[in-house]
Structure formats: C-alpha cells, structure tokens
Amino acid sequence: MMFSGKQSKPTFKSYLPPLQTDLKKSPQLPIKKLEAKLLPGEIVVNEANFVRKCIGAESCQDDLWGKLVCTNFKVSFISHNSLPRQRFQCTHRLLGEHDIPLACVEQVVTVNDVKGKQKILGSNQKLKFNPTELILYCKDFRIIRFRFDEAGPESAKKVCLAIAHYSHPADPQLLFGFEYVGKRYHGSAGEQVNGVDPGGGMQTPLFDCSSDWDREIKRTGASEWRVCTINQGYFISPSLPEFFVVPVSLADQDLKQYACFFYSQRIPLWCWNHSSGSALVRMSNISDPQQQRKVEQRISSAITKSHPLRSDVFKSDLDKTLPNIQDIQAALLKLRQICVIDCSKNPTQCFLVPLKTYPFEESEEKWLSSLESSRWMEYVRTFLRHAVEVVYMLERRNVPVILLENEDRDLSCVISCLVQLMCDPHCRSLHGFQGLIQKEWVMAGHRFLDRCNHLKKNDKEESPVFLLFLDCAWQLWNQYPAAFEFTDVYLTVLGDSMWVPIFSTFLFNCPRQRAENSRDFASSKSIHLGQDQALRFPPVWDWSQQFSLKDQTLFNNPLYVGKIATCVQNGTVKTFTHRRSKKNYSSTLRGLPSAFRNGSIGPNDTLARRNSLVLRLRSDLSQVREQQETPSERFIRDFFSRPVDLQGLLLPQLLPSHLSVWKLYFLRWVPEAQIPQGGPITTFHKLSVLTDEIEMLQNQLKQYKGAGGTPNNLHVEPSKMYFKSSSTPHQPPAPPEYLSSSFPFSPVGNLCRPGILGTPLSKFLNGAKIWLSTETLANETF
Fold this sequence. Notes:
Layout: E1 44-53, E2 64-71, E3 74-78, E4 100-101, E5 105-112, E6 117-121, E7 133-138, E8 143-147, H1 153-166, H2 176-185, H3 210-220, E9 225-228, E10 244-247, H4 252-259, E11 269-273, E12 279-284, H5 289-305, E13 314-317, H6 318-321, H7 325-339, H8 364-373, H9 376-395, E14 401-405, H10 411-423, H11 430-442, H12 448-451, H13 465-479, H14 488-496, H15 511-524, H16 549-552, E15 566-569, E16 572-575, H17 594-597, H18 613-624, H19 631-640, H20 663-666, H21 680-706, H22 760-765, H23 774-779
Parallel strand pairs: 12-14, 13-14
Antiparallel strand pairs: 1-2, 1-8, 2-3, 3-4, 5-6, 5-7, 7-8, 9-10, 11-12, 15-16
Helix pairs in contact: 9-10, 9-13, 10-11, 10-13, 13-14
C-alpha cells in the first residue's frame, strides 16, 4: 500500500524558541539613545537594554520596552513610551516616573521560568542561572516586574546582581545621601561651603540650637524649665541632642551625676507643657537598681516643683502597656501580606510567592479575618487609647506625666506626639507638625537608620514605628479633617520620604551619628566644612527638594480652620465649631458596657468568638446600667457631649467602627481599589475650587480698597490650592477626568496581583460589609 494506516512520526526539529503570540513585536532600536537622568554624585553601575516592564497583570499589550539601569541611588527604567493616564501625577524632582530608590527595595527576586527556578538575591551573592524575570518588592507596598525576553542573558544577570548589591549598603556612608550632599553643596576646592541653609528658608524649627528650644519654652509657658547645654559635643549621652530642656531646680552638676544611672545616659527630656502647668516628660529606665529609688525621687521632685500646684507626678510605663517593636513589625508584615500578596505558605519568606497566587480567592470572611488577625488596626487603636489616658491626666487631673520606656527612643516618640496633637492646635498646623516630629523623633534619637533597616543588616531591629505614628495621626485627621492644616496626601508623601536616603530627617539613629559620619565622609573626600563641624544634609521639611510649588499645594487643606478663622453671622463674629455626629454606626452595639462604649474593655470582660454577642448583651443589659463610670470614661463622655472646638482639645472616637484603614497609603497601588471620578478626592476638588474663589475675591477686595476703589492693575497672589476656580463666573470647573481615589498616585504598573475582580477584596472595595463573628462584630475593624 502506498499509504500506511500508521501515522509517521515527525522528524523535523526546530531550534528556535516557540513564538509568544501575546507579546508585542520585538522593539526597534530607537534613534535617540536612552540615558538615565542623574543627580549630583549619582553614577550608573550597570544597565541592560531591551528590557520589558510589565504594566498589565493579565496582558502584555500595555507593557513598556526600554533600558533598565542601576545607579548608586535608584533603579531606573527609561522608555520612550509613557504610561496611560499619567499626566496628573506629581513630578518628583529626585525620582522619575519609573524610578525606585534602592532604600525602598525590600527584596530582589530573580526567576528563570524555563528552568522553574527563583532566588532571593542579597549583597555579594552569586546567581547560577540566567534570569528571565526580575521582581522588586518595595517597602511602600509596590511590586515591580521586569522581563528579559529580548535582553542579553549576561547583561540581565549583571544588572540583577548590581541591584541586589547596591540595595544592601555595608556602611552608612555608602548611602547615597553622602555623595549627593558632598557633590551638590560642597565643592572639592571648598568654593561652596555648606550651601544648605540651616533653616532652608523654612519656618520649621530643627531644634538643633538653643534658640529653638527657648522659643518652644515661651510658646508653651513653661517658665519653670530651662535649656540645658551639658551635652554639647555629646559628652554626656551619645543619643541625646546637644540641647534639651530640664527643670530649673535641677543643676547641671546634678544632671551630670545622675546621667550615669540612666540607660545610655539618657537624662529625662521635657516634651511639652499644658496650659495648666502640667509637664509631659519622657524618661529611659534607670539601669542601677540600687540607685533607682533615690534618682527617681529626685527627678520627680524637680518636676513637681515646676508645677504651679506642686502636683505629684504620674508615671506611665509604656513597655508594660503597649506592643513592642517586634509586635509592630509582625503586624505590618501581615498587613502587607493581605494587601499585596498571599504569604501564608512561607511566613519567613513572605515575598517569595509566584505571582499567579490569588490571595483573595477564598471567602469574604477569610480576607476580613486576616485583616483583623494582622493586629495592625488593633495596635493603632491601642496607641490612641493610651494617648487619651495621658491627656486625661494632664487635662482633667492636672498632674505632670512621665513616659517611661526602657531606652526612650520608640514608643515614647509615638505617645508624646499623639498627646500634643490632641492638646495643642499649633501641632496641627503644617510647620507645627513638622517641628513636633523634628523635636520628638529626630532630635530625641529615634533609630531611623535601624528601624527603616536602610543597611539591611539586622531584621530584628527593623520596625515601622514611625509609620504607625503616621497612621495614628491619620486616624485623628480622618475624624477632624478641618482641624489640620495639611492633607492626607501630605501624610502619605511624608511616609514615602523615609525611603529617599538624602534627608537628614530619616537617615540616622541620632544627631551624634550624623555628625560623626559626615565628618568622616568629608575627611575621606577632602571636603572643606568651614566653620561647621559636619555636612549639612537637607531636612525633609524643605519640600522644594522634591516637589514644585504647584505640587506642594496638594498639602494644603481647604477645610482647615486656623486660630484666626472666623465667620460673621448676623453682625456677630463667631468661631467655627464642629459638632459630633449622632449617627449610630450599628444598632447591635447599643447598650454596651460603658468601658466598651468608649473603645476599651475591662480585663474581666470576655467575648465569645461566635453567635453569642447578642445573648451576652441581653444578659448583661441589667448590669450595664448599674456599672459605675471610671473618671477617665466620664472625661471622654463629657468631651463628646459638647461641641468640639477645632482649636482646642481633640479626642479620637475609639470604637473600631470609627477607625478606618488608611487606604491612600496601603491600597493606593491596587488598581481595583481605585474609584474613577470618586472617593474623597472629588470633595477635595470642590472644596479647593471654592476656597480658591473665596481667596481670590478677598484679595481683590483688599486691593480694591487699598487702591481707593480703583480695581485696575490688581496684583494676584498665588493660590494656595492645587485646583483653581474658573475665571468664568457661575461656571465652576468640572472635576478632571483623571481624578480617582488614588490621586495623586497611580497603581498602573504595580503587579501586586493578577486581578481581583469578583474576589472578596473586590466585593469589600465595592462596599460589601459582612459580619464575621461576635469578636469581629465587637471590634468592627472597618
């Protein structure tokens, strides 16, 4: 037979790779050469051409082709193409559209999908396979993915190794900030010595000189306190600033004698004075048990003498009542897992998970339970509640308070700032808030270098304590937005600035470390320092380093009611007040015990996990009315029974239903979390336009009166609002098409998941609310 019934086996063998139909055509070599934009002191250490940046999660149609560059400052992707809907994005003066600071890189993962291999790269490690894919997991919850389908295997391997190496600097002086400041502000011949203005033309005090502390003493009326200079040159304590405030009754000689008894010689620090004269003080533990009673009595006696009524001191032990830094770090890792990717399979390597994993494919209950079990929101609430208790002692009991912490460099930073935010309206202004952070975090010696883990040496020391504080501050802002001069965009950008290792604010563990390292670096580079003893790193408060004046207006809150904000009603000048909403968040929670009603529950109160809350409430209803309020609970109840003065005391509502997830920070990179033409930004837009129109009319009226009634040649002052009013009367500008709830950030290009449409997170983002259990009902995480 000519044809056999048995099919012949094909003998042709192809040596070409299979055709990838979903990819774009191979990129054409551009005529214009792609070059990275470099800052002073920045150098290119490696690069790879024909790299594809993945933009779409499930399709390659929107991916970008370009060059991947690693410098000593950032990972940069340069492309001729641009992302869609990006014209609204703020222009960062230090970082490009596709740039990632090396300090922001949490993990570098290389993948060879042909061989089925993947590896987390560290510094000075070898890579035995040619990577086909690079995944960068970032500390700001982004995930960036690059493909090397058309790139040379050697160049791909080298750029991956370079990113891993330079994101793990071995020494603080290898952080880019040193090269940047040395090159930009200090010439090799010394022609531009310390070109950074110590004040930067800013109104924010840096508290690195005695005059800043003197002004703060006068502002708060702390007449029985003085500036102490015994630590000049850091001769007493290595982690304290050179200038700080102590009681007038304590002599310098006594302080020198007592210093050796405190942990790291950290003498007690004055934070703030209440208008009643009660002082807020922070103190480390006494290391010598034999001297503890004597030294504590002497310190407490001096603080008591500073009080007008000679009130006894109340001590608040933060280590016994608040989560430690390891707890806070663990909570953030769990929160990142549920907001970014499922890491339950290997908690120790929480980022090394294939991108095909759907973290939200189970039930709604599992996702919300995971959010609850992360304990991040619980810790936010715990810190806010403790701050309220300290406020009660200062405000109602009228007694001085000492915040006790072992080293006095973490938890006390959070509580002292929250107390001042609640009590002092000055701290709710932009410059007041920045001065508060400068005083209680930077100069007080918070370990930003270790807690941010810039050197990636010791994971046990890493902890997002400052981010937790920003979240607490946001919760207060979210409940009283008109009381703050700044916006939530400002708080989010401030959190991101921790990963730009240029600013002195977040670069060091203490002022002495900054001085010593900058002196050593200047000596090694032959930089002439002039009269100053250290390099002048720019503080983060000089926002012109990062943003234009136009973009900085996004920080201005159109709702802000300042001290001079008044209105005229029926011929009478009145100040603005804010009345508490009487909305019932859940009818099921009516009739709760008084302690629980105020956001806390007694140590003897327990809640069953499921199907027993209603029975519990019914059985205890008769006992609720008989329970006697504690003084602190009565203080909180009295506060919420009166109209709230936005320029006075502010207390947060502490029921879990009053606390929200900070979506602009934690969920801004999730595409499905975006609400096009919706979210708080639409209200912000309308208020900004209205405020801009009012300011414009007020300026015109002032100049019209000053010109004798002639409205010609009116000088127009620059607007403080990002969105401007229309020049055409009675036609307010429509919201721009590019507005979304993630504004001014864009999730395009972030691959935190392949897609969540129809999943529990998608339902939650669309407003679904499902009660999980009695515990969840009681806690009402959202």
